[in-house]
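LOG
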Amino acid sequence: MKKYLVFPFLLSVFILVSLSPQGNAAGAKFDWSKVASVQGMPLVILPYGADHVDIDNAFNVLVDSNDIFQSVNTADHKKQFNTEASRILKRSPVVAILRHNQLALIPQNLTSGAKMSFLNLRGEAALRRIVVSPQLVTQLQRLDAADIGLITSALNLLFDHKRPFPSESFPVIPSPLLALAQQRLYSVSWGSPDSGDAQKARLTIKDRTAFILSPEFKNWVKWEKAQGKQVFWLKDLDKTQAAGDIFTFFFLWRAENGKITPQQNEVIKSFLKTVQVNDPALREELSHANQNDARTNALLVIKLWRNKEKGGEGIAMLEFWSKVYWPTQIGLSREEKLREVAEFAPHYASKIYPWVPEENLALRKIGIEVVIVSNGDQELAKAVAPLLGIKKSNVVGSHLLYKEGIATGVNHSYEIFDKDWTPRPQPGKSHSFHFWVNNNKRRWGWRTLDLNRIILAGIDGDSASSDGGMMINLLPGAALGNFMIDTPHEPNRLQKFYALVKKYGWSLGQYFTLSHDPSSPADWND
């Protein structure tokens, strides 16, 4: 039995590869005395800076030290590598590849044919992990598309293996995979991490879905997870993943379908009596509130809110939530509330932007936890989450409190409705995400919260204050970037976002404008 434990033990040995960026002097002959042994593992180093490298000798070392090349014609491959030797340039980046018990550093400027011939020498359990020394990270960021493609091919081979190399084997070697993923993202969005301009990078939801399916992104995620980390993508719901405001839509649906009782209509009547406006038409409508049925009063509440949103007279969002939305649910049984949101959910499907469910499912497939972080009705958001391709367990928001199965009130909300916070990044959603992670930490085997285990891949939002606050107040921030939604038919929302980010944001080059499909639904786009 012991012999079966030897190989995993060797693989778990810590290896640190550190290369000098100067390499050999021009014209220098490579000194094969540098073929060394690290913890019993043969180490073959091909330098950046030599004008000539004895590839034939290097290849013999590789073949002699390992049996994974038995199934290939080594003579032909040696000839091909010798032909390409003159193409090695100074300062060429190098990738370190671990095969079985051997580490080889391969110059990245070999031509495609020679490179892929080498990388395709797989054998059984051949390629385990790619490691890049710290000195190479900045060089990797400057690679052109062809070089990135070659590295990506190597990474694809790396993660084909069913039993990843133990993450604890490389606790201090930084991964260049994030830089490669970022470079791919910026290449499709025309941005730059050091642009200092939050408006420069722009892409469509379709473009981003294609990026999520790219090898660069998937390999980065797999690397982070191999290090024992959990990767998250945070998304708002309304106007971010679907048109309009789902909560006002649900409120109206309840009224139109007889779900608001006469007792609950009395709550609406009492509130409307307190509303003061100068507009004669609105005053006339308000004068009839006491005689109106639930549907008519609900329509009036929505009208007053939408009018206020557009800069006229009416009621603010805080008034709608605190005086109407939640109070008209007090007295519902838990079963009634869950039955209502389940009945409503299919009506919401037509509001979802194109490509949103596909993107969320793609993120989940590679192991990312997509989380809806909302200030709204958590039970309602959970009901529609599957339509978006998101797990019901990955929703955080405000919710009803029940006593003996009957709704008696609503839990706290971290949202700040004070007008002074309208142009500022609110901390509410950052608190909500922390609350949710803390409650769910055992899902990932965590006993306590540790920021080093949490990776935020990206954050999506349409609201400058609440979603912008999530982007700005969550530290460390999103690894890839923050995505500001260009809400269809509402350009002013994006302009508010730009203004807030310019004043309060970190790393402005990591902000992206995300555009939805032009055919996205426009109704209920408040």
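LOG (cont.) second protein
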Amino acid sequence: MSGRHLRLFLIVGLGLAAVAAFVYRPAIDGGFIWDDNDFLTHNPLNGNLRGLWAIWSSFSAPDYWPLTYSAFWLEWRLWGDVPRGYHLVNIFLHVAAALLVAAVLRHLGARGWWLVALLFVAHPVNVESVAWISQQKTLLATALLFAATLLYVRGRSSPEAWTAQDTLALGAFSLALLAKTSVVAFPIALVGYESLRRVPRRADLLRTVPFFLASLAGGLLTIACNAAHHTGVVHDRGTAERIAGMGAAAWAYLEKALVPTDLCFVYPRWQCDPTTLGGWLPDLAWLAVLGILAPGARTWARVPLAGLGWYLIMLAPSTGLVDIYFLSYAPVADHYQYQSLPGLLALVVHPLAVAAERIAVRLAVSRATAAIAWRCATGAVALVATAVLADAARTRAAVYVDAETLWRDTLCRNPDSELAHNNLGAILRDRGDDAAALDCYREVLRIDGQSAATAVAETNLRGLTALRAFRAGRLREAAAELDALLAAPHFPHRHLAPEAVAALYDLRGKIATLAGDEATAARMAAVALAGLPGDAEAGGSVLLATARSASGSDEQALYAACADVVARYPGTFAAARAHHEAGRIARRRGETEFAAKHFQAALRIEPHAIDTRLAHAETLADLGLADAARATLEPILEAEPSHEAAARLLERLGDPVGPRQGSSKGHAERN
């Protein structure tokens, strides 16, 4: 590249960077959303060098995209859990991809190549790919894809059958596949490129064979990884429905590319019935468009076919023909057309730029000043178009500032998004707004759409309902909810984190323990520990159950075992129960003060244990601390006003039971 061309690309690159900085400023300080944590904060492979080896040598990661996971592994060491660094890397990759697009189009002689790159950087439909940290996989794969494209087309200027440029192109494409397999259709685009140049010769087609082999290898690795992770059935649609749906999806993508309004993270679903003519109309419409352009493939329609061909070929894997899990929630997604969009932009910009040049030339014959004015006018129009897109993209980027903002925006545009309801419910639950979270889960069950979302919503609904009943002392209600959930055919669903599954079994074990059902408690703890060997709650419960069984009637041995549980699993429910056991032993021995200390320690860990609260109140009464005993009993009577043992103790303390019961009932009803 000459010095003049280098300076030109430097200027273009600085312009692209400036536009990107303007567009994505709202997202730079944004947080992690949805599955960002799976790549970063919750990814055990980021921990050490062994994780890096596992990324390349096994299917330890959810997808076999080792280049992407290696990039995150490295960035984790640089930025840790600070999102800004990841956002800046995404913006850099976005600008790099746009600059490579400009280089490819300029080499191919496309007019307005700089404007295509500018529009690509500013386009609102690309916000999802750039502002969402997880989509660094798309950005990295696309940048490598355009690098491979540039190397390939430059290599075609040589008469040799295979050149060093081709080798580099194959290497860049292979790396793109290792970043994300969505670029798998690239060899088909190469065949289309060869066909538009001239009638393909045998040598031209043989040149694409290594790229097809690389695509095949990448696809097989992805299939093997999905099988290893038991991904299962993503779509239950038949082949005819998938093919019919491809055309509808492609038109939907085209609409958002040309008129990028009402963008949504999860678009509403639609039905495509292949048994009717209407179901095939979108496909037939595409065939008609291609049929009109085909006769002029090497003349007037060469550029439109090249742009449209790239757009449709690179978009094809994301139109529903193959299984992509996100498409089970929505028929299309903005980030799936990131690598396709430059072809469409070139299709629009090139003929307009050619027309503008011809008009300028005609004006220049007699009115040179008018020609200059015309060029300035067309440049101004281009910059205005970029500014309009950039402003819309900046507004869209603000939606990705945090997960709650994103899910609420999604529900404003698509109220029937099960994915948004489930994830917003999880955010509200973690915040402590249980009532709002339960409403979100009920909405998913009302919609009754995607089976995995419904299963997760039912799990969340029953689990949270059981937890609230447990905290209120309604053990039977909590047990009934959990028993129904644990017996459901979809439990545990593969989309539930092991920690969440273990927590549900732990909760059922706690309820069984408080109800005196030690056998069920031990069984639940064992199941939780088998599913999550490092779970402290389950480990402590299993150790305590084992200690009870081993010690038998030997109180001294059980007391020592309880101390061991407290020391090894501090702060867990098992530690609370160990304190409870130790308090009972101390009380039987007449060590009332020690018993009170054990019960108090147990209640600090688990304040909802009614048996511990009652035992502590009785111990305080034995010590003559009547006011403290009454205060300890109060939560029991709020949860269960007719609790006999608590009522008897109040009578012992000299309190009138009737008014207190009425007061407690009124308080419970207000809650």
